[in-house]
Design brief:
The structure holds two protein chains of two kinds. Chain A is of the alpha/beta class. Chain A is built from 25 helices and 19 strands. The chains are: A alpha/beta, B alpha+beta. At the A-B interface, helix 2, strand 11, strand 15 and helix 18 of A face helix 2, helix 4, helix 5 and helix 6 of B.
């Protein structure tokens, strides 16, 4: 064993001891410090916890952890006294800090915050290795809480469990064991075979088999080669990669080192979007830690394999999520795609063989090596092994980041995990795959979630955004929104994408303003055809998908805008009017006082009236009315 | 093309940046990012200097600077409000927040108030979708925004004349 490998083994032994000590401290407290937690006020909560601990005279170990995925409960805090259950509290704003301690230690009731569940560490063992994760059980019984019952956490297993800024935590739970296995006893071909056998498909959205991709890059006889991590998660409504980078950055780095060994690369880049400053900071901390332990640099762990990598910060361009545009951006150029073939495995960054994978694809790799290809392949479905990570958002009761076995249905995700539609409204559509994906209506809710079934139903897996729309969402407006996005983000290289998106947006705007014609629908289909066949990259090819899928499933809604000049969802400003229900109006005057157009009049305690000529249809009165007296028609 | 700035720009501040990156392949974007960190935007003189020093056409530097949405060729307001219009925020009401700010301060997305106090930006997805709609005021992330709450925070911040502490997440 080399001295570097010995040093790592010693560090791991130490790390395990301190992990044991920390998690069995007199009091162990963790605070979720991902971007969501921080936005909700986690740093103030942490300060208040320190004060409360001092006030109670408790000696505690406090850990910052990544996101456990239950974003609607942020800020989240876990308390554990030695020998007792670890309890997860949600919505712990600073004022609520004393009460969670009173609840945990003295059994007092909660007013501001809630008990999310008991957080129990779960360990899965295979081949002498272990996968640690957290499971959440209800306070009363041994049943998992609804949000977690159908989840299976593999790539997110460390998120919320370990301190992402501590390499010791990562090492204590089996981190870098896969790299040790690879460097001490596997040939590059064996690594590629193991990943191929696991059936892992690229989690960036396209679902290309990861091991096969590595094999192509290995075969190309040209050096240097590069490994690149695509962390340019630009889809609106998607934050899976951010959570992995913020909550478990070492797993991505370990996966990249293994990939580099497999294909024969000596240098790598993590291309991360600039909108994720916390992810970038934590990645850089992790890289420093890995270097100091000899996991990066010359002679990794004393082997004759050299590898280092750096973070490249994006500069704000959605198209850079496309791999060739991304490589152009690393080269310091405008992020415009180039034609494929040749594929990056043959000619990529600076014309050299390059392997580009998504954040999650790399993060799965160490787990697959450790636990074995067979273990991974047995999860999920035959064609799409493993799990899928979704950012479940929109009009569901429980939003958050979820990881589910492939093959679960959309209905199970939306109703069992997401808790159904908020405010008792009706489900209308679920959008997967972001601006390049599709919308699926009620009748497709029993579609199993895997790469192939979603495509067959008319949508795509995409990178993992899942947005639920209810009856108040206008599907034409929804489609227009995505087209506006493409219009802004088209890099401008291919005219069908650049001009097509602008023209299609104009047509959609016309329809939402009640100026559309029935012939516009054929016009949209014709333009979509041109964009799909005439664009170089996925951005242009798939840009019409949200429009086409809403047109396929909600053509009536388009026609209502055109023929009936009405917006059935009550959302398009030009096609709706606001009225006051005289029976429900109490004459509280809140709407009249706040109307920016002064369009509402009426005496106190008498029903009010909206002047439709003056009304600008901003909807403020509807938001403010406590008596549901504002009617949209 | 590039707007000329009124004040003299101290170009010597760029020397250490160029020194550090000159020999690195593909370093134009990091150089522009550092430059923007120094000046708050990319003044014309800086773009010229970068092009000269890297021995690159000004058109290429300008092309890159205008391609990426993170780069600004004009001075921005003292306070910056970014409204997220990612899908989740969009369905949860960002368009209404946008029109509220437009009505109150007379600025459209991308614009700065006449007095140079406030810039309004609309961004696609800050990745905090479960807390939609999200606004970021001077680097301080604010979750679950409502019209009144946002206008109140904005008023406080503009009047306070002090900057909110920049949060860890920025």
């Amino acid at each position: 064993m080399s001295s570097k490998a010995q040093a790592l083994a010693a560090t791991r032994t130490e790390a395990r001891l301190s992990w044991e000590a920390k998690t069995n401290a007199e009091v162990y407290v963790t605070v979720g410090m991902g971007t969501c937690g921080l936005a909700a006020g986690a740093s103030d909560t942490l300060e208040a916890i320190q004060k409360e601990l001092a006030a109670r005279g408790l000696r505690a170990d406090i850990g910052q952890v990544g996101c456990v995925g239950m974003c609607s409960y942020e800020p989240m805090v876990e308390l554990q006294a030695r020998g007792r259950d670890r309890v997860n509290f949600g919505q712990v704003m600073t004022e609520a800090v004393p009460e969670i301690f009173a609840s945990y230690f003295d059994g007092e009731p909660l007013k501001e915050s809630v008990i999310v569940g008991r957080a129990l560490p779960t360990i899965t063992r295979r081949n002498g290795h272990a996968l640690h994760s957290l499971s959440f059980f209800t306070p009363e019984s041994d049943e998992k809480i609804a949000f977690h019952r159908k989840q299976l956490r593999i790539v997110l297993s460390n998120c919320g469990l370990i301190d992402p800024e501590s390499i010791d935590d990562y090492l204590a739970l089996g981190g870098y064991e896969a790299l040790e296995m690879v460097l001490s006893g596997m040939t590059p071909e064996e690594v590629i075979k193991e990943v191929t056998d696991s059936g892992l498909r690229g989690r960036g959205g396209a679902g290309f088999p990861t091991g096969v991709k590595w094999g192509f890059a290995r075969k190309t006889q040209s050096w240097p080669k590069y490994v690149i991590c695509n962390a340019d998660e630009g889809d609106p409504g998607a934050f899976m990669d951010r959570s992995v980078l913020e909550g478990d950055p070492h797993s991505v780095i370990e996966g990249m080192i293994i990939a580099a060994y497999a294909i024969g690369a000596r240098y790598g880049y993590i291309y991360c979007r600039a909108e994720y400053p916390l992810a970038i900071r934590r990645l850089n901390i992790a890289l420093e830690q890995a270097r100091s332990l000899g996991l990066l640099g010359e002679k990794v762990l004393g082997s004759d394999f050299d590898f280092d990598l750096q973070v490249k910060e994006g500069a704000g361009a959605f198209v850079c999520g496309e791999e060739t545009a991304l490589m152009n951006s690393i080269q310091g150029e405008r992020g415009q795609p180039w034609p494929r073939p040749p594929y990056p495995a043959v000619s990529g960054l600076w014309g050299q063989p390059s392997n580009v994978n998504n954040v999650k694809s790399y993060a799965y790799t160490p787990r697959i090596i450790r636990m074995g290809a067979e273990w991974f392949k047995a999860l999920g479905t035959e064609g799409s092994p493993g799990t899928a990570v979704f950012a479940l958002t929109g009009m569901v009761n429980r939003t958050g980041l979820i990881e589910v076995p492939m093959g679960i249905t959309l209905r199970e995700i939306i109703y069992d995990i997401g808790g159904g539609i908020a405010s008792g409204r009706d489900f209308k559509a679920v959008q997967t795959g972001g601006p390049l994906g599709g919308c699926l209506p009620e009748k497709h809710l029993d579609t199993p979630v895997d790469f192939d079934s979603l495509v067959a139903a008319g949508s795509v897996m995409g990178s993992g955004g899942m947005i639920v729309a209810d009856e108040t969402t206008c599907m034409v407006e929804f489609a227009k929104y995505f087209m506006q996005f493409v219009c802004d983000e088209s890099c401008g290289k291919c005219p069908p994408c650049r001009i097509g998106s602008t023209r299609m947006l104009e047509v959609l705007e016309r329809i939402t303003e009640g100026e559309g014609h029935l012939s516009d629908l054929d016009e949209i289909r014709r333009m979509a055809n041109g964009m799909e066949s005439g664009s170089l990259c996925a951005l242009g090819q798939l840009a019409p998908s949200p429009v086409m899928s809403t047109l396929l499933h909600f053509e009536d809604e388009y026609k209502a805008h055109i023929e009936g000049e009405c917006c059935p969802a009550g959302s398009c400003r030009a096609l709706i009017s606001y009225e006051i229900d005289a029976n429900l109006c109490t004459g509280c005057m809140v709407c009249a006082r706040n109307c920016p157009a002064n369009a509402i009049t009426g005496e106190k305690r008498e029903p009010h009236v909206i002047d439709t000529e003056l009304c600008e249809r901003c909807g403020l009165c509807k938001d403010l009315c406590k008596f549901d007296a504002i009617i949209v028609s | 093309m590039v707007t000329t700035s009124n004040d003299a720009v101290d170009l010597s501040l760029m020397d250490p940046v160029l020194e550090r990156y000159r020999e690195q392949k593909g370093s134009l974007i990091p150089i522009l990012q550092r430059a923007q960190g120094i000046y708050g935007y990319l003044p014309q003189e800086v773009l010229r200097k970068v092009a000269d020093e890297l021995d690159t056409a000004l058109s290429k530097v300008y092309g890159v600077a205008t391609f990426y949405s993170q780069f600004y060729l004009e001075r921005r307001g003292r306070h910056v409000l970014r409204l997220c219009d990612g899908t989740a925020c969009h369905v949860k009401g960002t368009p209404r927040l946008m029109s509220a700010v437009a009505d109150e301060y007379g600025i459209e997305p991308g614009g700065t108030t006449q007095d140079g106090e406030l810039t309004l930006e609309v961004v696609y997805c800050l990745g905090s979708c479960a807390l939609a709609p999200v606004a970021v005021l001077d680097g301080h992330v604010m979750a679950r925004m409502r019209r009144e709450k946002l206008l109140g925070k904005l008023k406080d911040q503009l009047e306070s004349k002090t900057d909110l502490p920049v949060r860890e997440s920025e």
